[in-house]
Specification:
Blueprint (H helix, E strand, L loop, with lengths): L1 H11 L5 H31 L9 H49 L2 H6 L2 H43 L1 H48 L1 H6 L3 H53 L5 H42 L21 E9 L5 E10 L4 E5 L6 H7 L8 E6 L2 E2 L5 H6 L1 E5 L7 E2 H6 L7 H10 L3 H6 L7 E2 L8 H15 L3 E5 L7 H15 L3 E5 L11 E6 L2 E6 L1 H7 L2 H10 L8
Parallel strand pairs: 3-10, 3-11, 6-9, 9-10
Antiparallel strand pairs: 1-2, 1-4, 4-5, 7-8, 11-12
Helix pairs in contact: 1-9, 2-3, 2-5, 2-9, 3-5, 5-6, 5-9, 6-8, 6-9, 8-9, 13-15, 15-16, 17-18
Bound molecules: adenosine-5'-diphosphate and magnesium ion.
């Protein structure tokens, strides 16, 4: 059932390119027709137009000229099939890749939590590539092959039915061998692909971790580890090429012996006077017309298998519904004051381990709420619920009294600026990375944002200024510099609500000071939610919540909490006795 649906869906990708498809098929038809008449025509030229004592050379030459012309025409159609046929496949691949990418953009955090990047990459590159091959060659091969098989079948019967039947006896054996060997071969190459994926994963992990490997002087360990995968890859290729060689050997032996049988039995029939030399020549040419489609059909079977398998994997992603979507009557969240409220919020990632259990809190517009608590207590999770990265399981979160599930995600997220500890810079220039905050922003606005984020002077000191490339993962910048670029992004975005999730915890004291200054500027006039493990940075917050695995343990401003003499004051004093734990 699912298979049939996929099949229909696959066909549907031809629809926008109907004209190209028809052009391709018609050209294939012309090619098949020419290939089918050629042996007949060559027999005729030998029978009727050879120059003899009472025939001139002229008609013979004209006929040969005409045949040459026919092949010029055939070449033109061959070009159409080879060029435009591939273009058809390429256009379909483009459509699919575009749809897949669009769909990937819609999928939510939960999907990416459980999916490996490498897998998505292989869908996007390998699977789609194989589908293109099938999309283009599939119908063409199938169509051409059937016409050629049927056509040459009839032609051979017409020339000499006894010889034709003798040849047909071979066909089932040939087809059986071809399909069996092809299957073995394709299984072999599937293993090659699998081990290739293994090598890719190993390589990715080793190269990303090369600095760690070096610091532990573990290069040899890495070399041995990589060698294992490389050996498996080599082994799988050995097997695959062996099956391929056996296939080639069998096929060439059988096709060649088919010619010998035709020659032998045909010669006998000529001797018996049941057939002429020219018949035998034409017959031999038809044998080729017969063998080529058989090869094509067997390759089609294999192509179909791997192409459809790729398409199924493609459809698997396409059929994954984004977990979080705009509700039907979603409104735009605009001109907000920034009153954030959690009411009895319950959340778990996996439906059994509850991370947040009945959280109630409120951030007054323009104020700063700080959250502290031990690692793993759920602070980041709480932050991620506000932009609806994940959906609450119970209770509700509202902004200015409006449930966040009733507003469009785009407008909700436009109103929120998130600065976290993990900074991601896209491969590109510094300018592009800041502009990411608001894609239409002008150069002046970008510079202003960089000034506000205390990073402008640094950027101007770079050789290429704002046009400096920040490597693959922004490797050439320090943590503090990267963080200030990410802060400049948020300045540019200028959202009324700000969430800072341990924005300074990965930085050393010196750079932290600069980042801290930038963040203070950034939070001015905005409703802010600040998570910090260094308590000195949140002393001035309007309110402080202490969250542990048991929920909200304490609540109040710095002074009240210190006077409470509970968890907060203990932790605060511990930090300022010179003992600063990594995590609170
Ligand atoms: P904090 O920010 O306070 O250190 P987190 O919100 O990151 O805590 O984590 C709270 C709990 O949720 C932890 O037990 C953590 O293992 C779990 N958790 C965090 N992110 C995910 C995720 N994407 N999928 C599943 N569990 C998660
Ligand atoms: Mg966290």
């Amino acid at each position: 059932m699912a298979g049939q649906q996929n099949y229909k869906k696959f066909i549907s990708y031809y629809k926008p390119h109907k004209k190209l498809f028809i052009l391709d098929m018609l050209s294939a038809l012309v090619i098949a027709a020419i290939d089918l008449v050629y042996p007949m025509l060559s027999r005729q030229v030998l029978n009727d137009y050879l120059p003899t004592s009472d025939k001139t050379l002229r008609p013979f030459l004209i006929f040969i000229g005409a045949l040459l012309l026919m092949y010029v025409v055939r070449s033109a159609f061959q070009f159409i099939v080879d060029y435009w046929g591939h273009i058809l496949g390429v256009r379909m691949e483009y459509d699919m890749r575009k749809e897949l990418f669009n769909h990937l953009q819609k999928l939510s955090f939960k999907y990416y939590d459980k999916t490996r990047t490498g897998h998505i990459m292989s869908r996007m590159i390998n699977d789609l590539n194989e589908m293109t091959e099938l999309a283009h060659h599939g119908p063409e091969d199938l169509f051409l092959s059937i016409i050629m098989l049927v056509g040459s079948f009839i032609a051979m019967l017409m020339i000499q039915w006894k010889l034709a039947l003798a040849i047909y006896l071979f066909i089932p054996i040939l087809v059986w061998f071809a399909i069996k060997q092809r299957t073995k071969m394709s299984n072999g190459f599937k293993e090659v692909k699998k081990s290739m994926a293994g090598i890719n994963a190993d390589l990715e992990s080793s190269i990303s971790g090369i600095r760690v490997a070096k610091s532990f002087a573990n290069e040899n360990y890495e070399i041995d580890k990589f060698d294992k995968g490389n050996m498996i890859f080599r082994g799988s290729k050995n097997i695959a090429y062996k099956t391929m060689a056996i296939f080639m050997l069998g096929m060439s032996f059988m096709t060649n012996s088919l010619h010998v049988v035709a020659l032998g039995f045909g010669g006998f029939l000529i001797y018996k006077g049941e057939m002429s030399y020219t018949d035998l020549i034409a017959f031999t040419l038809y044998i080729n017309n017969f063998l080529i489609p058989i090869r094509r059909l067997t390759s089609f079977v294999q192509q179909y298998e791997s192409g459809m398998a790729g398409f199924e994997r493609f459809m698997e992603i396409m059929a994954t519904e984004p977990e979080i979507m705009d509700s039907e009557n979603a409104i735009e969240l605009k001109n907000i004051k920034g009153d954030i409220r959690f009411e009895d919020v319950v959340f778990s990632y996996n439906n059994h381990e509850t991370v947040l259990d009945g959280i109630n809190l409120e951030v007054t517009p323009g104020h700063t709420l700080a959250i502290v608590g031990p690692s793993g207590g759920g602070k980041t999770t709480l932050c991620h619920l506000i932009p609806r990265f994940y959906e609450v399981d119970g209770g509700r979160i509202s902004i200015d009294g409006i449930d966040i599930r009733d507003v469009t995600m785009a407008s909700l997220r436009t109103n929120i600026g998130l600065v976290s500890q993990d900074i991601f810079l896209f491969a590109g220039t510094v300018r592009e990375n800041i502009q990411y905050g608001r894609t239409g922003a002008s150069d002046e606005e970008i510079i202003e944002a960089a000034k506000n984020a205390e990073i402008h002077d640094f950027i101007m000191g770079l050789e290429e200024g704002y046009d400096t490339l920040v490597g693959e993962r922004g490797l050439r910048l320090s943590g503090g510099q990267k963080q200030r670029i990410s802060i400049a992004r948020v300045f540019l975005k200028n959202p009324p609500i700000l969430i800072l999730d341990e924005a300074t915890s990965a930085l050393d004291n010196e750079t932290e000071l600069k980042v801290q200054q930038a963040l203070e500027k950034l939070s001015k006039g905005r409703t802010s939610l600040v998570i910090a493990h260094r308590l000195s940075t949140i002393k001035n917050a309007d309110e402080i919540l202490v969250i542990t695995e048991n929920g909200i343990e304490e609540k109040g401003n710095h002074e009240t909490l210190l006077n409470n003499n509970q968890l907060y004051s203990k932790l605060y004093h511990a930090q300022f006795k010179g003992y600063i734990p990594d995590e609170l």
